[in-house]
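Weekly sync notes, structure subgroup
Attendees: PM, AL, DS (notes)

Item 1: joint prediction request from the bench team. They want all two components modeled as one assembly rather than separately. Inputs as received:
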Amino acid sequence: MSWTDLVIPLFVCVIIGGGLMKRVPVYTAFIEGAVDGLKVVGRIFPYLVAMLVAVEAFQASGALDWIEKALTPLGRALGFPGEVLPLGFLRPVSGTAAIGYMQMIFERYGPDSIQGLTASVMMGSTETTLYTVSVYLGAVSIRKSSYAVKAGLIADMAGLTAALFVSRLFFG
Amino acid sequence: MMDIIWVILLLGGIAIGVISGKGTEMTQALMDGASRAVELCIRLAGVCALWMGLMEIMRRAGWIDALARRLGGVLHRLFPDIPKGHPAMGAISMNLAANMLGMGNAATPLGIKAMEQMQRLNTTPDTASAAMCMFLVMNTSSVQLIPTGIINFRHAAGSTEAGAIVIPALIATACSTLVGVIVASVFRRITRRRGS
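Output from the run, pasted for the record:
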């Protein structure tokens, strides 16, 4: 157990304790807030079906192998560990696929190799953008995402590029 | 944009799959995707109910308003459309705090609350508002201070310096958040100009 494991239990204690101090009827308040949990998930559901079906189809098609084959030499040519470049494509699209790919790199090269370190930094630099946008827009039933996806993907590219350069600087 | 990505992933995936003779796998994958959405929703439902319940306690104790007032000044620059002291500010700051601390489970329900509050201020309810876009970009670019999940994976893979990535990851995530915030405010101005 590390100290980070204590964050959530302590946080819960602080909330309940703080509520009691302010004379909030904590149990009733909790129930009233929790009522919305299922409703929200009901709204998110169709958005998640749409996104996950598309992501699964793309993964199962083997398209990623093509991308891997195309991106690896490109990365090497630019002076980076080429094996990690497909991760830059996976990371915004699918969280589980990205974790799987990172673990594959860990197994093949070791977590402390330049490939393993770079992959770790890339994973820590952004989120699963498509999933996040689907969930949050789904929660308020918005279908038109405006420029949210575009801006999110540009930010991802910046983060992933930064991850490549920073890793080379620190570990290269 | 979401339409384009969805069509590319779905049609591109099916086309490539069929060309490579993976008809069975593709059928399975489509069904699996739908089932995985159910699994994710069930897991999310419990976590959402838990954190929304706790958040209601915090709201009644007056903490969310206090947080909105305290952090309102800083966040007002990023979210100029949200009035100072509006409950949306409180929810946004709690979501960002949970994200920074790596409390992913708590961050999502808090973020959903923030989206609900922002939707009340949204003048075009079928389209994401400028405030929502800024909020989404900050969430998708990850503002986590210590990527505990990745460090655990590195440990499990037998790394002798699992934490060595903390500083580089922090620099990279700062880059993505900074670029995201800049891009979102530029897009905001462009759409405003086009609209007026």
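Discussion: Chain A has one domain: 38-171.
Action: AL to compare against the crosslinking data before next sync.
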